[in-house]
């Protein structure tokens, strides 16, 4: 079976996950994001590439940063952007997901940016559009359940490449709530595909999925041991809202063992960078002095995210 | 078909520009052939000619048919476009569509006082009302052929033809 993200010519037509995506396609997105990043420095921060196209942001789950950066990206490409507040619209009246999509296609949607609490929802929409022969309509996954968040993964890769140039000699540590994290999963797939020799995940046993080592990563439960000699430290948000049952004794206890402090960071390489996908819980997974410190590239990540999403939207729209 | 020697054509282009271009005109090469020519011209023509480069991929009019090309370069204009005299530089002038795209992109950086166009080869076949201010050579070329500028190992410019994909 063909990779459902690629069209018959092998071009990226939907972005659903980084898993199984060839390195050339990932690198093409990262390369294309470079000239898009410099558009933000101009007087007119807009190019006419997607003039006349309509991008629908379908957010079935809240997210301010991701929705805003997708909206800015589409607007900088001159697309028309329609934000649907799904929680208070048709689905609450009983309409199915695919009926909602069909109605929006009837309004001449060219692209859907989809965030959904259910893993696989963007894939379901893409498969439906392909089945209906609507190959000119594209789907970009903006985060689905615990499955994937490919544009976050790509912007993390872009950030790492910006500061570290090459993946092939890096040690990257991903710290915290890996169990609930689609960000971690997407980043691990991307790093592995681009030839990163060592990816570590660090966290308590209750927050590390047992099958994670099958992704080719090393698991550490001791943070200092896991951070030793790292080039890149990616902190994850503790997703308390997704936790059912007693996975953790307390956030204070969590911070003591897995919160990033200047003292723990000292065992990483001297030029190690610190990343976080946001929103941050200060004093839970990261202390303020580190989050705002000179090693932190957390705000550049947000800026790069716009350029990376411009690259994704324009590549899939051109397929 | 017989093509002129690229280095001789470049020298002819430089001769036409000498004394005609403004002393402080900025030279903006369109990637990739135009970028090479812009650098060479800035070295051989007297004056204060800052060099910039432009990749018109985000402004092309064939995006809906062809999509984005695989390697988009970064446009770099290391000077103030507002009020500047700019010479756009390309290797081959054919339909005029790349020049149209480049002019549109320049205006997103500011309002230039004046834009001129210098090309190594004008091969006819215009689809837009655009003409070169300076041309190294004018040729009639069959529509199905593309003229391609390349650089050999020593950096010398070479003109060749290819069957056109468009």
CATH architecture of the largest domain in chain A: 3-Layer(aba) Sandwich
Query: What form of chain A results from the Cα inertia axes?
Result: globular
Q: Largest interface: which pair?
A: A-B, 20 and 22 residues
N- to C-terminal separation of chain B? 19 Å
Show unreliable segments of chain A.
Answer: none
The helicity of chain B comes to: 10-25%
Largest sheet of chain B: 5 strands, parallel
Number of strands of chain A: 9
Percentage of residues in strands of chain A: 5-15%
The strand order across the widest sheet of chain A is 7-6-5-8-9
Task: Explain the overall architecture.
Chain A has 319 residues and is of the alpha/beta class. In chain A, 37% of the residues lie in helices and 14% in strands. Chain A has helices at residues 23-39, 64-76, 97-106, 121-131, 150-164, 182-193, 223-227, 251-258, 262-265, 288-291, 298-317, and strands spanning 54-59, 80-85, 111-116, 138-144, 171-175, 198-202, 218-220, 232-235, 273-275. In chain A, helix 5 (150-164) packs across helix 11. Chain B has 166 residues and is α/β, with parallel strands linked by helices. Chain B is built from 4 helices and 7 strands; from the N terminus they run αβαβαβαββββ. Chain B has a 5-stranded parallel sheet, sandwiched between helices. A two-stranded antiparallel ribbon of chain B has the order 6-7. The A-B interface holds A 11, 28, 31-32, 34-35, 38-39, 42-44, 46-49, 314-315, 317-319 and B 55, 57-59, 63-64, 66-68, 70-76, 104-105, 107-110.
């Amino acid at each position: 079976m063909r990779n459902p993200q690629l069209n018959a010519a092998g071009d990226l037509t939907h972005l659903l996950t980084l898993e199984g995506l060839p390195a050339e396609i990932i690198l093409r997105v990262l390369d294309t994001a470079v000239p898009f990043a410099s558009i933000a420095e101009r007087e007119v921060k807009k190019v006419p590439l997607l003039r006349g196209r309509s991008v629908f942001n379908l957010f079935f789950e809240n997210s301010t940063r991701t929705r805003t950066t997708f909206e800015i990206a589409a607007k900088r490409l001159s697309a028309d952007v329609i934000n649907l507040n799904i929680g208070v619209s048709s689905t609450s009246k009983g309409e199915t997901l695919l009926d909602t999509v069909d109605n929006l296609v009837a309004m001449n949607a060219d692209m859907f940016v989809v965030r959904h609490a259910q893993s696989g929802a963007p894939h379901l929409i893409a498969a439906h559009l392909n089945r209906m022969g609507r190959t000119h309509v594209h789907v970009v996954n903006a985060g689905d359940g615990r499955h994937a968040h490919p544009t976050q993964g790509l912007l993390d890769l872009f950030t790492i490449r910006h500061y570290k140039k090459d993946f092939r000699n890096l040690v990257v540590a991903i710290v915290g709530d890996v169990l609930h994290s689609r960000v971690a999963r997407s980043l691990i797939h991307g790093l592995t595909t681009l030839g990163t020799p060592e990816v570590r995940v660090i966290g308590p046993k209750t927050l590390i999925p047992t099958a994670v080592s099958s992704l080719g990563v090393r698991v550490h439960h001791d943070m200092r041991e896991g951070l030793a000699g790292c080039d890149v430290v990616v902190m994850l948000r503790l997703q308390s809202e997704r936790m059912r049952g007693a996975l953790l004794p307390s956030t204070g206890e969590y911070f003591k063992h897995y919160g990033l402090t200047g003292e723990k960071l000292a065992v990483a390489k001297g030029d190690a960078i610190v990343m976080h996908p946001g929103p941050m819980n200060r004093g839970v997974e990261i202390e303020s002095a580190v989050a705002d410190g000179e090693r932190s590239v957390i705000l550049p990540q947000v800026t790069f995210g716009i350029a990376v999403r411009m690259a994704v939207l324009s590549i899939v729209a051109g397929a | 078909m017989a093509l002129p020697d690229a280095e001789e054509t470049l020298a002819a282009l430089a001769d036409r520009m000498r004394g005609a271009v403004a002393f402080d005109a900025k030279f903006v090469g369109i990637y990739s052939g135009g970028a090479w020519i812009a650098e060479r011209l800035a070295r051989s023509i007297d004056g204060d000619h800052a060099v910039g480069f432009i990749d018109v991929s985000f402004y092309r009019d064939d995006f809906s048919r062809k999509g984005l090309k695989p390697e988009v370069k970064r446009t770099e204009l290391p000077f103030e476009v507002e009020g500047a005299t700019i010479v756009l530089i390309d290797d081959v002038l054919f339909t005029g569509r790349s020049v149209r795209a480049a002019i549109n992109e320049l205006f997103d950086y500011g309002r230039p006082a004046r834009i001129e166009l210098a090309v190594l080869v004008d091969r006819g076949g215009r689809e837009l009302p655009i003409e070169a201010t300076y041309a190294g050579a004018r040729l009639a070329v069959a529509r199905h052929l593309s003229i391609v500028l390349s650089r050999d190992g020593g950096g010398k410019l070479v003109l060749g033809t290819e069957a056109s994909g468009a």
